[in-house]
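Why this split exists: single-chain examples teach little about how molecules sit against one another. For that reason, every record in the complexes split bundles all components of an assembly together and asks for one structure covering all of them. Below is a record exactly as it appears in the raw files.
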Amino acid sequence: MRILIVDDSRQSKFYLENRIKEREEYKIIAMIEDAANAELYCIKHSVDMILMDVCTANNSSGIEAAGRIRKNYPNVKVIIITSMPEHSFIKKARAYDCNGFWYKEYDEIDILEVMDKVAEGNYVYPKSAPEVEIGCTKSSEFSPREFQIVRLLAGGMSRQEIADELGISSRTVRFYIDELKAKTGHDDTMKMVADFVEKKLIINGLK
Amino acid sequence: MIASAVLTFDQLPGVMQTLLHIMLMVMAIASTLLIILRNYYDPKKIFIITDLVILIFIAAQLVGAETATMRDEGQLIVTFMRSCFLLLLLVNSLICVYMVVSYKRIRYKRRTTYSSRSVKEALTALPTGICYSGKEGNVLLANRAINRFIWEMLGSELMNIDDAWDRLREIEDEQKSDYLRANPDSIVLTMSDESIKYLVRSPIEVDGMMFTETVVTDITLLHKLTEEARQNTIRLKSLYKELKELSDNLVMINHEEEVMRHKIMIHNNVGNMILFTRKLLSDPDAGNDALKDAARQWKVLCDNVIGIKTDSEKGEAIALKELLDTAKEIGFNVGIHGSLSEFSKQGFLVRQILREAMMNSIRHGGADTMDVYPSEAEQSLILTITNNGSVPEHITPSGGLKSLTEAVARSGGSIEIKTDDIFTLIVMIPKDKEGNMA
């Protein structure tokens, strides 16, 4: 099986390369750093499976690239790999019909095991995103809407702009923000959002 | 019988007559006042007529009472009215009740009805200055507050509001304030006591006639709060911007953290290898295999050190090189005939264009070679791209080409496709804009 590794971390590539070398049935055909270039391999039918990092070189989103590849080349299997606990990655990966999802630092299952199961035609996903502490609570305590609001705050939007974006009232946005602050124990909105961003629960800026 | 049993006025004792005189006079005065107040506050015809009749009746009683007392002194007797005293007393009582009720009604009307006087009183008491003027600016109605304001600002009385307005506008221009105003046809002035006055005028129509209403309001507190809110908004926007930058840079920060961890790991590994190698070299029993193994590990370590340098040199040139290397690896040749250095600001868009052109030429034209000719016009940069694939008969932008067209359009550029002898893609990107992917 021809494997393409898309990861801009040398350490990560080094690790994956060494693990995959243990299996003769897997052959690494290339290791690239920019997810946007992965589709070029697919167009030449040169790859069977891609291990795709989410945050790749030049701010290219591995999940978006995976979505295009799965749509245009359904025979190519894609396993998303990441070290970030960003809560929306798993959901997006599923939406794009990616074959697998693996956390570099959090997953208990080995990457080779994931690859084996995906090669057999299975979908392999962790039960949930890793739990991260935000203030005095855990990331599993937040609803999707709350994550959405924090993401928009991290994008520099004001309360009214968020309300317009989500089609809700400004008062409702304020309610959500107050709820988030109460849950996390932060008394300042900016500090709370910065906590989400620093803990990599919210990643903006990917293209 | 009945007549003989009833007293007439002249049969009453003197004290009683005096008292009755006084009562009738009081009633007459009250009735007169009632008519005046009624006319002012409750001018209903029926009530006015009733009041007049009552007044005449009271007057008749007065005259009758006078003539009755004068009769015994031998003066000319004018008998105006002779009737039963008790009956008169009853009627007068009813008249008193009527007057009390009327006064209550008038008092109620006075409280609840506007009159021109009450309007003027209210206007005078207003802290806001207000003035009504006619077509030529002549003042018809002005309250104390606006008069005081005009006196303070212009040193003269308010005679014509249009003239005053022009002079106030000149003062506003001299003050050169930058207050925000909701109405462009308004004046904002700073007074000598640092308070801020806001003047606005508007036309009003009353009974088909046009007047101008000019209002002067103190907005000192409003201005202070608005200014505070504005400063807070600026601070908040700055915070939002910093947060966005943090969020946008997180990917880069994360990458740099990984590079740092990698460097620390290599540093530790180099240290360990130095100690291990020193021990190996000083061990006379160390075999060739051990030395070869050590050499291999040093090579890996050196590759990692070189890798750090490469990681640090990210930039548009490296990104483009990676794209071209990828193309080469899949057997596709890309020739760049010119310099793309001018395109460095639009690097992301340029790579998207090249990538999309490559994929389309392979997918639809079976090409294996693509040539790129960068050029420059006065306001734009141009990329002309050709390939050696077959030329399609008809092109409908969809999928990648469609999203590329949209991305180029967002950056203010355009795409032209020519299908003459060879397939040619001409992309024009404005010079001063950065290209961003959807």
